[in-house]
Amino acid sequence: MNIKSLNIVTVAISTLLLIGCQTTTSAPPSDIPQIDNIVTLIPDIPDSDGDGVLDDIDECPETPPSVVVDAKGCLIEVYTSGLEMEFNGFFPPMSSQLPAIYNEDFITMVKSLNEYPKANVFIFGHVAANEINQDSLARNRALIVKNTLASQHGIDAKRMRTYDCSNNIFVENTDNIDRNFKALNNESIESKHSRVTLKASSSVQDLTNLEYDYYIEIYGEYAKYCELFE
C-alpha cells in the first residue's frame, strides 16, 4: 500500500467516525428525574343561571333567562315605551255609583286602552274607615268601573282584574291624582278613601311577580294590601 492510498483510507475512517458521533443519542440515566410541562387546572366554577357571571361572584343568582345583567349578575332595568296609566275616581259616601263628572275620563282611558290592546287593567276598590259593609262596597266600586269599560266602551273583560283594598293605602295628596276631587266638594280624610284606583300597564302581567323596582314602586302596595276577587 503506497502513501497516497493510506491517506484515502484514513480520511474515510475519520468520516465514518464523525457520522457516528452525530447520529448516536445516549439515553439519560434512569436515576435522573424527568421534568414534564405542568398545566395548572382552574376549578370549574358554575354559572347556574346562565347570565355570564360565575356563581362565586353572582350577587343575584337566580336571574331569569334573556335579561341584561351588570357585573354583579343583577338585572339592569331597561324601560321601553308602552302604556302606564292611572285613574282615580271618588264616590259619595256609601255609594258605588261613580259621578258623571268622570265620563270624559272614561273616554280618555278607553282611547289609550284601544291603542294598547295587550295592556292589562288593574282596578282597586277602596272604602273609608267610617263606611259600613266595607268588603262589598269596595268590590262594588271596582266592579262598576270594570262593567262600565266592558259594557259601554267595549273593553274586553278578560283584560281587567278587580281587587278589594278596603280602607288600605292612604292617599295623602289628592291635588296630584284627581282634578275632580275638589269639584266634588270632597275635603275630608274619609273622602280620600271612597274611591277606585285604576292602573293600566302594557308591561305588568301579574302583581305577584313584579321584577323591576320601577313597577314595585307603582304596584307594590296594591299587591301587598289588596285582594284579587275577579
From TrEMBL:
Any one GO molecular-function label of the UniProt entry: calcium ion binding
Residues of the signal peptide: 1-27
Alphabetic keyword roster: Signal
Lineage top rank: taxon: Bacteria
Protein name, as recorded: OmpA-OmpF porin, OOP family
Native source species: Psychrobacter pacificensis
